[in-house]
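FORM 7B: Structural annotation worksheet

SECTION A. Query
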Amino acid sequence: MWVSGIRAFRPHRRATIPPPRPLFRIHRTEAGVHYDDFEGHQALPALNHESPAVVDRVVDVMCHWLRRGASAWRLDAAYAVKPEFWAQVLPRVRTEFPDTWFVGEVIHGDYPDIVRRSGMDAVTQYELWKAAWSAPLEGNFFELDWCLKRHNDFLGCFVPMTFIGNHDVTRIASRIGNDKAALAATILFTVGGIPSIYYGDEQAFQGIKTDREGGDDEVRPAFPDTPAALSPWANPCAGSIIDLIGLRRRNPWLVNATTTPIQVEKSHLRLRRQRPGRAATERCPATGPQPDGRHPRRGRHASAACGGVRRKLEPEPEPEPWSQSQSQSQSQSQPEPEPEPETERPPTA
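SECTION B. Predicted structure
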């Protein structure tokens, strides 16, 4: 159009579409282009978790393996990713796979808050891992008592994944010896949580984790071609683990069991295990098995993770108290709780 003999143009309204965010955290400066990596490992570029494309890619990868038969996901280094990222990913995966179990590797931090904000079912209970081996090693069961009190609080919100060994730490038998490793396994299988055994620990495998290139090799040996070629370190520890697994399967209520100290001394801890009351079922429906041993349909409750009301438990009649002590032999460390009828068991990672 024309105004006073001067041609005026209508301003062109460009679409205000932001540029797509890259998959990786790339920085361009006068010195050049560089990228963030994971904990100093340049071979592991850090993903840009603010990018919707990364959310889509992670959802695709998870669903790919679940379609091929996987039933659970361990989210490696979940501590390095904001919980809000997983809150975008997990509900989409649960849309197709509502019964998938998600556990995040978390070392430090507020476990219940991370579970609530992320929608994960569980996190790795590193606090219990530390106390389970250091209390017998150092003869300081005050540490284990303190840890189990915090563990009870965690169980009020979610069911942690418990362990005494994994691919990132020194083998339990190398750290504290076979006898104390059997005691640590007894702690693992007789307190609340979802226990896991790292392959080879049931055979008392040895291995020291070191901070160097290849420092994980000793704790991650290859599987042998045949059972006959199992590690020469195999010993009766395997029988102890088998017995403890049997005890756990016969008593699925232990998943949610809490503990009460009866006697606490430096080298001795006497505990009473308590089973949750039948009325106390509203314990964070998105995050773990219920007191009857059954697992909720997490897909229906993902947004309610750790948002439920924590009711006061009313324990049923309890078995006799038992003790953990530094001198306890593995034959004495497996008291049999009063069994309940078999129910569906929670997944074990």
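SECTION C. Observations
Helices lie at 52-67, 83-96, 111-118, 126-138, 141-155, 172-176, 178-189, 237-250. The chain has a mean pLDDT of 79.

SECTION D. Sign-off
Analyst initials: ____
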